[in-house]
Amino acid sequence: MPPSIADAKAKAKELRRALTKLEKITGITESRSREADRMRAKRESIREVEIPACKDRELRELLESDDVEWLQFFFAKDCSNPFWYKFTPQQMEMIAAIRSAVVHGGDQAIAASRGEGKTTLVERLILKYTLQGIVNFSVLFAATGSAAENSLESIKSDIAENELLREYYPEVCVPVASLENTPNRAHYQTVSGKRHDNGAEFFRHSSRFSWCGHEIVFPNVPGSPSASSIIATRGLDAAVRGLKKRGKRPQLAVIDDPDTEETARSEEQAAKLEDRIDKGIGGLGGQQRGIARVMLTTLQSRISASYKFTDAKSKPSWRGKRFRYLIKPPERADLWDEYVQLRRLNQQSGDEWARTAHQFYLDNRKDMDAGAVVANVNRFDASKLPDGSQNEVSALQRYYNEVARVGAAAVATEFDNDPPEEAGPQESGITASRVQRQLSGFARGVIPPTCVKITQGIDCKKTGLHWVVRAWEPNATSYVIDYGFHESHGVRYASDDGVDVALRRAILERIEATKASEYTKPDGELLPVDLTLVDARYRMDAVYAACAEIGKGIYPVLGFGRSNGCWRSTFTQFQKRTSTEHPGDGWNMKLDGRVWVVHANADKWKAWEHDRWMTDPPHAGCLRLFGTASGERRMSFDELAHHAYARHVVAEVEVEEMYRGVLRRIWKARPGYAQNHYLDASYYADVAASILGIRLDMESTRKRQAALPPTVKPEKKPTKARPSARELASRVRR
């Protein structure tokens, strides 16, 4: 009969008692206890890290005082990706520029040849400044998050694997090496040793740090200059605002190759990237100290964000530098053309080791090298080929091998940072910086002594008037002597009630203010404003009524252009002067009721306006703003004060593009430039000058405009009788 459950439990209890007695007799319990103690001691040994003293503290401090010496000492040999030759002058300049931005603050943009080692340089300089305690929070930005993480992995590898760094920076490298590829150990590691700063001993101090993810936190070792310092990574394709870790804000932002294929080909995407760098990254600093920004890039196109940031005129605060691979081309370009053709024939023949081109270079090397200067003489492949010959023998040969492989345009872009003009839409090259810097030296309201006419252009919108006053020499050289914004009173947000009355009143007030303004020459001669043109596209009836009430010296103006679909063929045809129509060069005046209205060729006069800014003083037809220039790279106060006006002027740009197989010019708004009111007011002032007889030889411009086909045919609409000026004026008063 089988035992019951109760009997089985009683038997098990009896056996456990017997086993306990047996363990006490044989000593097995003590053995288990000893094993547990041994395992506990092993875990403690893993957690506890002994920090040795620096191998040579004086040498460490001496090396830290010189970036070049530090880099070449710790990364010259026995490390991955060593610096195996002395730095070139360009690389030395890059190192100095990066140090200036880090130590003294500010921004620095550097465009260097692809493959020149700029990323490796900046990664190791970030490591140096962090180990040294100069920077306690730096952020690596790249076009994408994965690209940024690659740079962080390189820094981590240098710390974990570089034996020289471990000897001279044991407070960082030893705790990291002790992790043994187990980052989780960093959370409970303790350290003992002597402080680096004063030599005092410390025992079992928690070094709690982080060694994985999108950022690393350096070991919190007592006396370490880099204790708890942070190096983080971010992609420019993700949010960059509000970056704050452990109560710290970034001190240094390194932007490595920010452009992508999209930003290099799309003006809109490039503008978004520019905005992210200027506003998002630029605002990461603390209250007392702004963040230092260093951009390292290779230009991909002329519309890319990198091109703008490395342009001293577009972004002067970034102190842009562009380095070339081929500093000076060789004298015998014909021999190199033949070399490129031979090399391409070798590639097409399918014979991998056909060395006709190489032998041609060896036979004519003296002549082919003559006059050429390359930035880095070490950039060539000296490896041996199966036939025993050397692959390349000079950096110049490497350059032209790339020309044969990918083409001259790609080499100019990737190696020389000089991308060719795109085949697509092309701009004039005008920038807000150029407009700001073109100053006359005269104070606001002062008319240069050679000027004979004064005109004014006014652009209207709901909240007020943008106005520009210009003085003119007979040869069309002009000066902006005054501009501003006149507010309309009595308008309400989200309502059109009272807008006509307010606009009419604003125009009358502006004309009264114009008459009261004393625009004088240096000798005291007072000149009145001869003619004012007011935009009538917005609230036409109100503008007509105001001009009719004022009478002499003011006309409404309507702009017509191909770009806005309002083209009038009469601008390109000869018109006779009649009692109701006065034709001009790119404009005509028509009697509408009792008001003369100016119809202007907007495309022509906007182009004329930009041409004036692109004309260098003191050539005839140049255009200048009031104020005094600094004459230096840094803008003067007067130049900076014209920033808003200049952005309006360049908010639209004329571009060339192919349309149905025909090259045409068309005006387009620039991404990121919201307003263009001063541009419109400025070209109205130009048209007014033309009406007054100011002339510049524009025969070539007229021919160009006449040759362009209209993009939109004017719609034929039934004529509608307009009320007289008196009726309009009385209607607005009511």
DSSP helical segment count:
26
CATH architecture assignment of the largest domain: 2-Layer Sandwich
Strand order of the largest sheet: 18-19-20-17-16-13-14-15-21
Q: Tell me, what's the shape?
A: extended
The percent range for helix content is 25-40%
Could you name the CATH class of the largest domain?
Answer: Alpha Beta
Termini separation comes to 120 Å
Domains, number:
4
Question: Any low-confidence stretches, pLDDT <50, length ≥5?
Answer: 698-720
| Alpha-beta classification | alpha/beta
Mean pLDDT: 84
* Main pleated sheet: 9 strands, mixed
CATH topology of the largest domain: Nucleotidyltransferase, domain 5
Report the β-strand fraction as a percent range.
15-25%
How many strands in all?
23
- Evaluate the radius of gyration: 37 Å
Task: Give me the secondary-structure topology.
Blueprint: H1 5-26, H2 28-47, E1 48-51, H3 57-64, H4 67-74, H5 89-104, E2 107-111, H6 118-132, E3 137-142, H7 145-161, H8 163-168, H9 170-177, E4 190-194, E5 201-206, E6 215-217, E7 230-235, E8 252-256, H10 261-265, H11 267-281, E9 292-297, H12 305-309, E10 321-322, E11 326-328, H13 333-349, H14 356-363, H15 365-369, E12 373-374, H16 395-406, H17 408-414, H18 432-437, E13 453-461, E14 464-472, E15 478-487, H19 499-516, E16 531-535, H20 540-550, E17 554-560, E18 581-583, E19 587-592, E20 595-601, H21 602-613, E21 623-625, H22 637-641, H23 643-649, E22 652-659, E23 662-669, H24 677-691, H25 699-707, H26 725-733
Parallel strand pairs: 1-4, 2-9, 2-10, 3-7, 3-8, 8-9, 13-16, 15-21, 16-17, 17-20
Antiparallel strand pairs: 4-5, 6-7, 11-12, 13-14, 14-15, 18-19, 19-20, 22-23
Helix pairs in contact: 5-6, 6-7, 13-14, 13-16, 16-17, 19-20, 20-26, 21-24, 23-24
